[in-house]
Amino acid sequence: MSGLEPLAAMGFACSVLRLVEAGGKIFNIAQTAYQQGTIDRKTAKEYTSILFQLSNEMLSKSATAPAKPAHCEVELLKTAKTCRDVSRDLSEDLTYLDSLASKGELLAAVKLAAKVSWRQRRLKRLEQNLKDVESRMQKLILGRVL
């Protein structure tokens, strides 16, 4: 049988959707931090570890991909790469916010972020990437089911 096994592909897709869900929660944490100047450090660390775990899981699964994958498998692998990149960037942002919170400098960072809005633009870009991934995954899954 060529390509990914159906069960492996479904597990892969589930990992992507779990990552999208965790990413959405991280966006909420980051937005709260930037708007209110507070961060729930325990939840932030929890979701950072979830992102790290899912990203590593997807990396190991994509390493076992066939040499000549089918079109839908190529889409799945591209989606996995996008998810890994987004999860890395989100983890960096949460680590940054957490380090500021531990130093008591989060409020100063929020004021600075208001002046320099590139971090917020970056978050919006990452959020849009995750929404695109989620949409792509839903279309792929529905296309296979129907």
Describe the structure.
There is one protein chain. This protein is an all-alpha fold and 146 residues long. The protein has one domain. It contains 5 helices and no strands. Helix 1 (6-36) runs antiparallel to helix 5 (118-145), helix 2 (41-63) packs antiparallel against helix 3 and helix 3 runs antiparallel to helix 5 (118-145). The two termini are 22 Å apart. 25% of the residues are buried. Residues 116-143 form a coiled coil. Keywords: Coiled coil. This is Fungal N-terminal domain-containing protein.
Runs in which pLDDT lies below 50 for 5 or more consecutive residues are: none
H-E string: HHHHH
Number of strands: 0
Given the structure, what is the number of helices?
5
Beta-strand percent range:
under 5%
Distance between the termini: 22 Å
The figure for the number of domains is 1
Q: Share of helix among residues?
A: over 70%
Main pleated-sheet profile? none
Structural class based on helices, strands and sheet pairing: mainly alpha
Radius of gyration: 17 Å
- Morphology: elongated
What number is the mean pLDDT?
76
Keywords: Coiled coil
Coiled coil: 116-143
Protein name: Fungal N-terminal domain-containing protein
